[in-house]
Amino acid sequence: MDFSGCLDDQSFGPTVRGCRDDFDFTIKFEKIFFALIPASIFVAVALARIVYLTRKPNIVTGGLLRVAKLSAICLFSVIQLALLVLSSTKSRRFAAFFIPADALTLASGLCMLPLSYLEHARAPRPSILFNAFLFVTILLDVSQVRTLWLASGNADEITFSRLFTCGLAFKAVVLVLESQSKARWIVCWDVKDHSPEETTGLYGLGAYFWLNRLFLTGYRKVLQISDLFPLDQSMASETLHTGLVHHIDVSCFRGKNHALARAVARALAFPLLLPVAPRIALGAFQFCQPFLIQTLLEHLQKPRDMASDNVGYGLIGATILIYVGIAVSGALYWYFQERVLYMARGLLAGAIYRKTTESRLAASGDSAALTLMSTDIERIIAGCLSLHEFWANAIEVALASWLLSRQIGPAFVAPLIIVGVCVVCSAIFSRFTGPRQKTWMEKIQKRVGLTSNVIGQMKHLKISGLAEAVENAIQSMRVDELNAGAHFRTIVVFAVVVGFLPFFLSPVIAFAFASQTLNVTVIFTSMSFLTLLAAPLSILFQMIPSLLAAFTCMNRIQAFLEEDAQVDYRRVLTTSPFEGVATGEKPNPEGAELPKVKISGGNFGWETGNLSLKNIDLDVPASQLTIVVGPVASGKSTLCKALLGEVPVAGGSVTMVANGFSRIGYCDQNPYLSNATIRENIVGFAPFFQARYDEVIEATMLEPDLALLPNGDSTNIGSNGITLSGGQKQRVSIARALYLNTDFYIFDDILSGLDADTEEQVFLRVFSPVGLIRQRNATALLCTHSVRHLPSADHIVALGPGGAIVEQGTFQELMANEKYVSTLGVENTQKSSSRGSSTPPVTKPSSEQILKPKPAKPVLPSDVEEKARMTGDWAVYRHYFARIGTWTKVVLIVFGALWGGMANFGTVWLSFWSADVASANPTHSNTFYNGLYALFQMITLFSLFETAWVCFTSMISISGAALHKEVLRTVINAPLKFFSTSDTGVVVNLFSQDMTLIDGQLPQALINLILSLFEVLGMAAVIATSSPWVAITYPVLMFVLFVLQKFYLRTSRQIRLLDLEAKSPFSHYIDTIKGIATFRALGWVREGIQQNYLLLDTSQRPAYLLAMIQRWLALTLQLVVAVIAVAVVAMATQLRSNTAFTGAGLIALMSFGETLAQIIRFYTLLETSIGAVSRLKAFGENVKPENKEGEDVIPPPEWPLKGAIEINGVSASYNDDDPEHLALDDLHLSIASGEKVAICGRSGSGKSSLLLLLLRLLDPLPPKQTQSPTDTAKETPEQSLTIDALPLTSLSRPHLRQSLLALPQDPLFLPPSTPLRTTGPLTSFLSPRLSLNFTPTQQYDQGGLLLSLRRRTASPSTPPEKWIKTGIELYNSAPRLSTVACDRWADWSVSDLPPSSPPSGVGQETGWTTLLVEKDKDGNGTGVWVYRVLESGEKVPLREICWVFGGSEEELGEWEVEVSAMAARPAREGGEGLEVAFVGLEVKWSD
């Protein structure tokens, strides 16, 4: 058994020479690479897998399938044993190769037995290792079978070949059995809780068969989240965190660059390495293409009678193997790559949320960190998508350079010079990428943070008349953000051009140096290698900006994770609630009753060196009521936060006794409420107990309020509880605290929003000696300004203005001290208030009346909406293109067509060149052809640059600004009802996720679609030149692609819309940020994290499935390309096509598949990302503005002169669809000019509704029609709503609110860096007085105006937008966050102004202070900043401002004034003057 028919079989080869038509591998090569190496690797890996599976439990039955598998493996092993015996006894020349190969194959068969047994019983899916080995070795064995049969010459050799063929057949049987799904036999496996992906084997994963059911469902119906497959359990957020949290240790990050990126790589090391093997296989198949082209062209150059038919058939088979291999290996590669990226997505999002729950209170209030959860993570996913391409492309470039040198010799260095230049350019660009990306992200973060804050406070902004100013501020931030993004995208444009430089210029330079050796085969084989050289480089250079951007975003997340966490400085003593003794240390050896909280030497503040509370020594007695009183800004709220461990600057000791309870029932001064029902807000994450729930509802006097609501306690209260009054929000917050199972409650000024009667009843039922807290024997601390309840307190703490305890003790003790409490004028009414109340009892509705909601009609999508959701809507494209601009569209089409034509004409030109070179008498020199070739390539590059430049700089900025302005105006003009029924997270998502798509994915998809479409048309023409018969298949191909995209798009479009809509973690994250102190106090952190995991997994489902179906599309199109390639090769070999055009066609085919896939992929991406525009368009159409027809009257500047209010017969409801539940019912009210009127009533009686009615935030209902006595006519009662006889229903609502001065019930603060200013020429201010709306806060008790006057640099005829607008910029923030001390003005000339006497009507002591006088180089004044303290509501005459600046109104016409507001307080100890902070104050010009 020598197989001695060919002497060359003993050589390494790999191809055989002198036999088998020179179209085969040598036996030596096959035995080494097709048998020895695969079997050795499998045995080593199988043993490790067997050890791993022995530790797993049995989860699968199915004994019959297991027996069939083991039987087939046994038969295969018996055949391999026979082959080993035969090769051991009969082999001579190849014994050294046959015997080891057969022995290792037998060993692999023996390893299959235990591996198959364990894989079947202990793994849910068919073994990937087993199936991969079987598939690869079957392909390799097919080649060996062909060789053995062709080399067999005697009986022994034929017998060996027969046995080997039988072994191959049994291996195929094993493959079929091992690939069977085991889902039906898995024990305790609910299909609804698991994705079919978890039970799909290697082939189902590689071909994406597990998505078929999803495609069918999406084609037949409108998809919902519930229709999508559950997330793979190994990708679940909680699973990832549990298994990988030890890798992400933030304490090890500090001071280390890219520490988070390295930690994530370590945590996901195994999934990160899985794409390596298929990527290697993909590269190997791609590098087979040049050899296929070379062999095919050499075969075609031979005369037909000298060419072997077997070679032709072999080329067809090789084409099938190569192109199908590219499709399958690419599918597996991207499958594993997408999985690891979405695992990283879940890991990072979970880490961000967990950090939020640990952040310090001041830091967690920055809602701009929302950008990390959306934009930053999405850019990380996009940037790291091609991470493995870096090492793979580097290897491919080196290998392509070596192979190219074999074709054109030393000339291969020329393309490397181009590569070197590109590397240098990329290095230069990379220096700008990170900083520009960071700047862009920071601006996005500020805008999204402000938008989120504004949407949550829109009611207060409208009341204050600041809505228009905030709209302008946000839009200006958006324009600034787009400009910053354009700077970053400029780098991207140059990176794209640099990326394509090797692709287009390398052939020109290479052929210039190798012009003497060119022929048809060399030209097209070299082009194939140049394509393999330039294509990876093109991808590499284009990926660099995205990858650097991803690392920048990763560093931003790392910086967030590295922020100082909240440090709970409290010392907790744990005692048994039953035995009353310490389980840890013994806190009180003498047995005296312990205080619930003890503070010794406490110093607390929000900034280092600026303490709010000083030298606090306090005992909070257990099971008693402690009331804390004191003036405004004395530190009461800080004391509450200090007891929660939330104050960042803390000194001394805080000791608490936890009698088995770790949670604190806490109510903040500004109640935190989530966008949920009243019941859900009260119960929170606790289990529902009806008795306890009814108890707290009764104690907080919520029964009458629930009876008035349309759905009782199932009414959704909107973001920040916008549908509730201030008192109702506070009582819901109290009920939530009381529902908590704890023995310690802290209430921060929760009675301030209640009317006197409701306050009395709530205090009686909750805090009095017969109240709910006393019944539970719990401890309560109440901070309040309602000093009339002091007699009911067991312990009183009085704080002074400096933050120190003035006195503490019982009420009788403090009254005897004759200090602070004794001066409050409180009488001892404890007896009367503790035993009852004179307040009439409130009628308690029945349980059904409170709790039973009205059945809501389900909102079902219309047939038109369903069709648009499944098939798209061209009106959306028109809406988007209308905001791009005609010039931009023309440039895209013209230069896109130029790109497609010239990019492919170069290949056609090579065909003419090669044909001329091959002719006996060439008509032109190589220099002529190469020169024109270079011209065509440069034109192609220029068209690419022009298209990208227009798209990335002009189109994005124009469309982004226009779309943002429209949706922002829709939100600002939306009625109050919209904010009560819409989730803040959903609306913010329009400004975050959707704007990210509009700025990035949407324009990129559009430009890539245009370029790819024109390019593929040129490629199709080039491929058709190889054989006219190929062109005949194009109609069929177009039909297949049409059906494919129709089938595919119906599902992908819907899933993309679900991905945009499924942003539940976003809303949950917003809720957590807003109420983090309450979250931690109530002990909701763990439940919040679990809820975030659940919501995050839900949002991951559509995103991950969308990525998978896009990879399914790529696989399908690559298979289509494989069919075309087989057709080209078959027709070329059988019909003898033109050699040059066949080479051109095969060169085009190398990228045709990818370009074809890009067309549908980019079209799909365009269709799905246009969903963002669709959402914005639908949002603008569905949200009707609050201004109605006829409300266009603009009141005169001096209105209202008198302020007389007349309301007659007006009714109003918050729900127009439910007029039975009225907020105001037939209201009649007359207020004369100059009267001061107090509106009284219980909480929820309509006090706030009356204010909203006057400001037109609440619309009056149409008057009711009544039947006349004769039943023949109907009369409409007279209804009026006027101020100074001007009907409010006819006024423009924004102008109405700007003409009135109103203070919202809750304080209004905007995030830092909010440019909110009124600016313009001084003479353009029509109203003569400036007023300041300032409410004293805990930190600041003075309000002031900051005025900046600057000389214009242009003539009066210059448009205002051309003026230089510099000077003061108002930053709004919580006072403690942005303090500017007086030492900031140390180097400025400070003096009192003015030196002259004030004009008539202006007091001598005006209090104006100069902060800065600006002068030019000649000493002439160019600007001045002045400051003055104002009382709340004080107005400054315009003439006084003119006098302060030293001129009349006419004289100051060439100047520009800028008005800002600020808060102030006396300087800290050791300082002089005032400390000022820019805060959210309202500055208005009024008469």
From TrEMBL:
It is a multi-pass membrane protein. It is found in: Membrane. One of its GO terms (molecular function) is ATP binding. The chain crosses the membrane at residues 32-52, 64-88, 94-116, 128-152, 158-177, 311-336, 408-429, 491-514, 520-541, 890-912, 932-952, 1005-1023, 1029-1049, 1112-1133. One of its GO terms (cellular component) is membrane. Keywords: ATP-binding, Membrane, Nucleotide-binding, Transmembrane, Transmembrane helix, Transport. Residues 827-859 are annotated as: Disordered. Residues 597-827 form the ABC transporter domain. Residues 827-849 have a biased composition (Polar residues). Residues 280-549, 890-1168 form the ABC transmembrane type-1 domain. InterPro entries: AAA+_ATPase, ABC1_TM_dom, ABC1_TM_sf, ABC_transporter-like_ATP-bd, ABC_transporter-like_CS, ABC_transporter_C-like, ABCC_6TM_D1, ABCC_6TM_D2. Signal peptide: none annotated. ABC-type transporter; part of the gene cluster that mediates the biosynthesis of the phomopsins, a group of hexapeptide mycotoxins which infects lupins and causes lupinosis disease in livestock. This is ABC transporter.
